[in-house]
Design a protein that fits this description.
Elements: H1 3-22, E1 31-35, E2 40-43, H2 44-57, E3 64-66, E4 79-87, H3 89-94, E5 100-107, E6 110-118, E7 123-128, E8 131-135, E9 138-139, E10 152-154, H4 169-176, E11 181-183, H5 188-196, E12 202-208, H6 210-222, E13 225-229, E14 238-244, H7 245-257
Parallel strand pairs: 3-4, 10-11, 10-12
Antiparallel strand pairs: 1-2, 4-5, 5-6, 6-7, 7-8, 8-9, 12-14, 13-14
Helix pairs in contact: 1-2, 5-6
Amino acid sequence: MSLDALLRTAESAVTQTGEFLRSLAAHERGVASTEVDGREVKLHADRRAHERLSELLAGSGVPVVSEEEKTSHGDRLDEVWVIDPLDGSYNFTRDLGHSVVSCAYVVSGSPVFGALYDLVDASTYAGGRDRPSRRNGRTISCSSVARLDAAVLCTGFPARFAFREDGLVDPYFEFMARFAKVRMVGSAAHSLCLLARGAADCYAERSIMFWDVAAGIAVAQGAGANVIVPERHDIGPHSVVVAAQSLAERVTHTVAESRAFARH
Protein backbone atom coordinates (compact mmCIF):
# COMPACT_ATOMS: atom_id res chain seq x y z
CA MET A 1 0.00 0.00 0.00
CA SER A 2 1.12 3.58 -0.63
CA LEU A 3 1.71 5.92 2.30
CA ASP A 4 -1.46 7.83 1.40
CA ALA A 5 -3.45 4.59 1.40
CA LEU A 6 -1.93 3.58 4.74
CA LEU A 7 -2.88 6.95 6.23
CA ARG A 8 -6.46 6.60 4.97
CA THR A 9 -6.58 3.12 6.48
CA ALA A 10 -5.37 4.45 9.84
CA GLU A 11 -7.86 7.34 9.85
CA SER A 12 -10.75 5.03 9.04
CA ALA A 13 -9.64 2.47 11.63
CA VAL A 14 -9.35 4.92 14.54
CA THR A 15 -12.64 6.56 13.61
CA GLN A 16 -14.54 3.28 13.49
CA THR A 17 -12.93 2.09 16.73
CA GLY A 18 -13.70 5.41 18.39
CA GLU A 19 -17.34 5.31 17.30
CA PHE A 20 -17.58 1.78 18.73
CA LEU A 21 -16.18 2.92 22.09
CA ARG A 22 -18.52 5.91 22.20
CA SER A 23 -21.45 3.54 21.75
CA LEU A 24 -20.61 1.49 24.87
CA ALA A 25 -22.96 1.76 27.80
CA ALA A 26 -21.71 2.83 31.22
CA HIS A 27 -21.64 -0.75 32.55
CA GLU A 28 -19.35 -1.74 29.66
CA ARG A 29 -16.68 0.81 30.67
CA GLY A 30 -15.68 -0.66 34.01
CA VAL A 31 -12.25 -1.69 35.29
CA ALA A 32 -11.19 -5.25 34.45
CA SER A 33 -7.85 -5.27 36.29
CA THR A 34 -5.03 -3.08 37.56
CA GLU A 35 -1.27 -3.06 36.96
CA VAL A 36 1.82 -1.25 38.27
CA ASP A 37 0.77 -1.54 41.93
CA GLY A 38 -2.77 -0.48 41.11
CA ARG A 39 -1.76 2.79 39.42
CA GLU A 40 -2.72 1.68 35.92
CA VAL A 41 -6.21 0.44 35.10
CA LYS A 42 -7.19 -1.99 32.38
CA LEU A 43 -10.75 -1.94 31.09
CA HIS A 44 -12.78 -4.56 29.27
CA ALA A 45 -13.12 -1.80 26.67
CA ASP A 46 -9.33 -1.67 26.18
CA ARG A 47 -9.24 -5.23 24.90
CA ARG A 48 -12.33 -4.84 22.76
CA ALA A 49 -10.88 -1.69 21.19
CA HIS A 50 -7.60 -3.52 20.54
CA GLU A 51 -9.43 -6.31 18.73
CA ARG A 52 -11.49 -3.89 16.66
CA LEU A 53 -8.55 -1.64 15.71
CA SER A 54 -6.21 -4.56 14.93
CA GLU A 55 -8.81 -6.17 12.69
CA LEU A 56 -9.33 -2.92 10.77
CA LEU A 57 -5.56 -2.55 10.20
CA ALA A 58 -4.98 -6.19 9.24
CA GLY A 59 -5.62 -5.66 5.52
CA SER A 60 -2.59 -3.37 5.26
CA GLY A 61 -0.20 -6.27 5.83
CA VAL A 62 1.77 -4.19 8.37
CA PRO A 63 2.36 -5.88 11.76
CA VAL A 64 0.72 -4.34 14.84
CA VAL A 65 2.47 -3.48 18.11
CA SER A 66 -0.25 -2.81 20.68
CA GLU A 67 -0.32 -1.85 24.33
CA GLU A 68 -2.93 -4.56 24.83
CA GLU A 69 -0.93 -7.39 23.20
CA LYS A 70 2.12 -8.14 25.31
CA THR A 71 3.44 -10.70 22.83
CA SER A 72 3.99 -7.83 20.37
CA HIS A 73 6.14 -5.75 22.71
CA GLY A 74 9.39 -7.42 21.67
CA ASP A 75 8.78 -6.82 17.97
CA ARG A 76 11.26 -4.69 16.08
CA LEU A 77 10.07 -1.24 15.05
CA ASP A 78 11.33 -1.54 11.47
CA GLU A 79 7.86 -1.10 9.93
CA VAL A 80 4.87 -1.48 12.21
CA TRP A 81 1.64 0.03 13.37
CA VAL A 82 2.05 1.17 16.97
CA ILE A 83 -1.38 1.47 18.56
CA ASP A 84 -2.91 2.47 21.84
CA PRO A 85 -6.55 1.45 21.39
CA LEU A 86 -7.65 3.61 24.33
CA ASP A 87 -5.25 6.20 25.73
CA GLY A 88 -6.72 7.79 28.84
CA SER A 89 -8.56 4.71 30.07
CA TYR A 90 -9.15 6.18 33.52
CA ASN A 91 -10.69 9.28 31.99
CA PHE A 92 -12.92 7.03 29.88
CA THR A 93 -14.19 4.90 32.76
CA ARG A 94 -14.86 7.87 35.05
CA ASP A 95 -16.09 10.35 32.41
CA LEU A 96 -13.25 12.52 33.65
CA GLY A 97 -11.86 14.03 30.48
CA HIS A 98 -10.50 13.28 27.05
CA SER A 99 -9.49 9.80 25.89
CA VAL A 100 -8.14 8.90 22.48
CA VAL A 101 -7.81 6.02 20.01
CA SER A 102 -4.25 6.24 18.72
CA CYS A 103 -2.51 4.67 15.71
CA ALA A 104 0.96 5.46 14.33
CA TYR A 105 2.79 4.14 11.28
CA VAL A 106 6.37 3.69 12.48
CA VAL A 107 9.48 3.04 10.38
CA SER A 108 12.92 2.44 11.94
CA GLY A 109 11.67 3.53 15.34
CA SER A 110 10.32 6.88 14.09
CA PRO A 111 6.63 7.83 13.67
CA VAL A 112 6.00 8.66 10.00
CA PHE A 113 2.37 9.63 10.49
CA GLY A 114 -0.38 9.25 13.02
CA ALA A 115 -4.15 9.12 13.24
CA LEU A 116 -6.09 9.77 16.43
CA TYR A 117 -9.76 9.91 17.38
CA ASP A 118 -10.90 11.96 20.38
CA LEU A 119 -13.74 10.14 22.16
CA VAL A 120 -15.09 13.27 23.83
CA ASP A 121 -15.68 15.52 20.83
CA ALA A 122 -15.47 12.93 18.00
CA SER A 123 -12.56 14.76 16.36
CA THR A 124 -10.13 12.96 14.06
CA TYR A 125 -6.51 14.12 13.85
CA ALA A 126 -4.13 12.95 11.14
CA GLY A 127 -0.73 13.95 9.79
CA GLY A 128 2.98 13.41 10.07
CA ARG A 129 6.44 14.80 9.59
CA ASP A 130 5.98 15.01 5.79
CA ARG A 131 2.21 15.48 5.77
CA PRO A 132 0.49 18.62 7.10
CA SER A 133 -1.67 17.73 10.08
CA ARG A 134 -5.42 18.13 10.06
CA ARG A 135 -8.25 18.07 12.55
CA ASN A 136 -11.52 16.97 10.96
CA GLY A 137 -10.01 17.75 7.55
CA ARG A 138 -8.85 21.27 8.42
CA THR A 139 -5.16 22.09 8.62
CA ILE A 140 -3.85 22.77 12.12
CA SER A 141 -0.60 24.31 13.32
CA CYS A 142 1.37 24.83 16.49
CA SER A 143 1.43 28.16 18.30
CA SER A 144 4.00 30.89 17.71
CA VAL A 145 4.75 31.41 21.42
CA ALA A 146 8.49 31.97 21.81
CA ARG A 147 8.96 32.54 25.57
CA LEU A 148 8.84 29.91 28.28
CA ASP A 149 7.24 32.35 30.71
CA ALA A 150 4.34 32.72 28.27
CA ALA A 151 4.07 29.06 27.31
CA VAL A 152 1.72 26.24 28.34
CA LEU A 153 3.28 22.87 29.14
CA CYS A 154 1.23 19.68 29.01
CA THR A 155 2.65 16.90 31.14
CA GLY A 156 1.61 14.04 33.36
CA PHE A 157 2.68 11.45 35.88
CA PRO A 158 2.20 8.05 34.25
CA ALA A 159 1.92 4.84 36.23
CA ARG A 160 5.66 4.20 35.97
CA PHE A 161 6.71 7.68 37.11
CA ALA A 162 9.13 7.50 40.06
CA PHE A 163 8.08 10.12 42.58
CA ARG A 164 11.05 9.24 44.81
CA GLU A 165 14.21 8.32 42.98
CA ASP A 166 17.58 9.72 44.02
CA GLY A 167 16.38 13.29 44.17
CA LEU A 168 15.29 13.39 40.53
CA VAL A 169 11.82 14.75 41.25
CA ASP A 170 13.04 18.21 42.17
CA PRO A 171 14.77 18.85 38.80
CA TYR A 172 11.57 17.84 37.01
CA PHE A 173 9.51 20.31 38.99
CA GLU A 174 12.16 22.94 38.36
CA PHE A 175 11.78 22.24 34.64
CA MET A 176 8.00 22.63 34.85
CA ALA A 177 8.34 25.85 36.84
CA ARG A 178 9.97 27.55 33.85
CA PHE A 179 6.60 27.63 32.04
CA ALA A 180 3.72 30.04 32.54
CA LYS A 181 1.13 27.27 32.99
CA VAL A 182 1.25 23.51 33.46
CA ARG A 183 -1.69 21.29 32.54
CA MET A 184 -2.31 17.56 33.05
CA VAL A 185 -5.22 16.18 31.02
CA GLY A 186 -4.90 12.45 31.67
CA SER A 187 -4.00 11.44 28.12
CA ALA A 188 -0.58 11.84 26.51
CA ALA A 189 -2.15 11.47 23.07
CA HIS A 190 -4.62 14.27 23.74
CA SER A 191 -1.84 16.47 25.15
CA LEU A 192 0.04 16.15 21.85
CA CYS A 193 -3.13 16.97 19.91
CA LEU A 194 -3.42 20.15 22.00
CA LEU A 195 0.16 20.99 21.05
CA ALA A 196 -0.56 20.31 17.38
CA ARG A 197 -3.51 22.70 17.27
CA GLY A 198 -1.78 25.46 19.23
CA ALA A 199 -3.73 25.21 22.48
CA ALA A 200 -0.54 24.16 24.31
CA ASP A 201 3.05 24.98 23.42
CA CYS A 202 5.11 22.07 24.77
CA TYR A 203 4.62 18.47 25.88
CA ALA A 204 7.02 16.69 28.23
CA GLU A 205 6.66 13.47 30.16
CA ARG A 206 8.94 10.96 31.87
CA SER A 207 8.56 7.19 31.96
CA ILE A 208 5.98 7.22 29.17
CA MET A 209 5.44 4.30 26.80
CA PHE A 210 5.91 4.71 23.05
CA TRP A 211 2.36 3.61 22.20
CA ASP A 212 1.02 6.47 24.33
CA VAL A 213 2.79 9.12 22.24
CA ALA A 214 3.73 7.70 18.82
CA ALA A 215 0.74 8.95 16.83
CA GLY A 216 0.57 12.24 18.73
CA ILE A 217 4.24 12.95 18.06
CA ALA A 218 3.71 12.45 14.33
CA VAL A 219 0.66 14.76 14.26
CA ALA A 220 2.52 17.38 16.30
CA GLN A 221 5.41 17.25 13.83
CA GLY A 222 2.99 17.65 10.94
CA ALA A 223 1.72 20.80 12.66
CA GLY A 224 5.22 22.28 13.04
CA ALA A 225 6.54 20.85 16.32
CA ASN A 226 10.09 19.72 17.01
CA VAL A 227 10.95 16.50 18.85
CA ILE A 228 13.66 17.40 21.38
CA VAL A 229 13.84 14.11 23.32
CA PRO A 230 14.51 11.36 22.27
CA GLU A 231 16.34 11.11 18.95
CA ARG A 232 15.04 7.58 18.33
CA HIS A 233 12.22 5.75 20.03
CA ASP A 234 11.79 2.34 21.56
CA ILE A 235 8.73 0.89 23.28
CA GLY A 236 9.72 2.57 26.56
CA PRO A 237 9.35 3.69 29.22
CA HIS A 238 11.38 6.75 28.33
CA SER A 239 11.28 10.54 28.31
CA VAL A 240 9.61 12.56 25.57
CA VAL A 241 9.83 16.32 25.03
CA VAL A 242 8.13 17.98 22.04
CA ALA A 243 7.71 21.73 21.51
CA ALA A 244 6.36 24.20 18.98
CA GLN A 245 9.12 25.26 16.61
CA SER A 246 9.00 28.82 17.93
CA LEU A 247 9.78 27.54 21.43
CA ALA A 248 12.06 24.63 20.53
CA GLU A 249 15.42 26.37 20.97
CA ARG A 250 14.56 27.57 24.47
CA VAL A 251 13.14 24.20 25.50
CA THR A 252 16.21 22.43 24.10
CA HIS A 253 18.47 24.68 26.17
CA THR A 254 16.37 24.12 29.30
CA VAL A 255 16.43 20.34 28.84
CA ALA A 256 20.21 20.42 28.31
CA GLU A 257 20.88 22.29 31.53
CA SER A 258 18.40 20.24 33.57
CA ARG A 259 18.88 16.85 35.25
CA ALA A 260 15.18 16.15 34.95
CA PHE A 261 15.50 13.74 32.04
CA ALA A 262 18.97 12.34 32.70
CA ARG A 263 17.90 8.79 33.56
CA HIS A 264 14.65 8.56 31.71
